[in-house]
Each structure stands twice: as C-alpha cells, then as structure tokens.
Amino acid sequence: MTSTTPGLRERKKARTRWAIQDHAMRLFGEQGYEATTVDQIAAAAEISPSTFFRYFATKEDMVVQDEYDDLFVEGFRLAGGSDDPMGTFRSALRAALAGLDQATWDQNLARARLVLSSPLLRARSAENFVTTLGKATAAFAQGAGTAPDDARALAFTGACMGVVATAAMTWSAENADFRMTDLATLAERVEAALARLAGADWSVRPVPGSAAGEPGA
Known about the structure:
By secondary structure, the protein is mostly helical. It has helices spanning 8-31, 38-45, 49-55, 59-64, 67-80, 85-98, 102-117, 119-144, 151-174, 183-195.
C-alpha cells in the first residue's frame, strides 16, 4: 500500500495554507468580509497575491475550505482498506473531533457564522461539499482497490457525508451561540446517526488485478 503520510514539503504547504486563513479571519473580524481584499490578506500573511491564488482559487474558497476536508478524505481512505469500513470511519471521525481545541473551535465557528451570513458563501460551501464528497469517494475506492464509480463506494461515502452534514446543520440551528461545550452533543448526534448505518454490508470487492490501496483499473 502506498504511504499517505504527508512529507515535509506537504506539511509546510499545509501550514502556509491555514496561516493565510488565520490572517484573513482576523482581518474579517476587524473590517468585515466584503471590505477585506485579497491584497490585504496577502500582505498580512507576508505573501504575494499570486501566492495566495496558488493556495486558494478565490476568497470564498479560503473561507469554506479547512483542514478537516483533508481529514475526512483520509478517514475514507482508511475505511476503504479496512474489513470494517464503518467502524474505521467512525474512529477517524471521533479522533478528529477529539483533536479540536478552543482556538480551532472558535476559528471554525467564526467561519460558520460568516458562511451563514452570506448567500454567496453558502452556495460556495455547498460546492465545496460536493468536491469533498468526490475526493472522499475516490479515496475510499483507492483504499478498497476498486473503481471510483463502484456502487458501494458511492453509497458508503454518500451516506456518511450526508449523515455528518445533516447532523451538523440541525445541531447548528439549535445552538445559535455555538458553545464549545455543545460539541459533545454534536459528536453524540453524529455517532448515533452513523451507528444506524453500521449494520449494512459496506465491504467492497477489489477490481480484478488491482491491489488494495491502489486505484482500480
């Protein structure tokens, strides 16, 4: 199986990417989203505007994307290579939620409020969800050694992503102040919803001639 552990270069790029987002969120808090330009964000992050666009295609993408998209994708890759896909995915999700600290939580909530306040950002967030779903399906299929259009790969990732998104949306609607203490309630709701899917047979047969962890032919 090919290693998915990011190398030094990838880790450095990831740190730069999310540092840009940190600077942008600070500026949004000080002067508002609409009033903040890409040039200002780049200056605050001590990069050029062209470098900004190497990390984010648009200012909207910089708001709706986060490091948890990558954690989701990796969780699906691990699930695809497991004899217990649902159990593996649930474990990966629990680990991601457990890793949230107060600063990260506050940053995520600030972005969530910003997205909810803007029709343009809500639309871009939906597009980002679809993009992440496609990456998750491809990662699951790669882990399972099958084709990305395998019916069970599509069903597994679609079901899991749908459950998580629905639980998060209903939870946020009930918790307008987004307290960190309510995170346990969100985690319990997601876990309970995923548990309902645990009884299904999510095993995927590798494409003949392909090995688990490699893309299907």
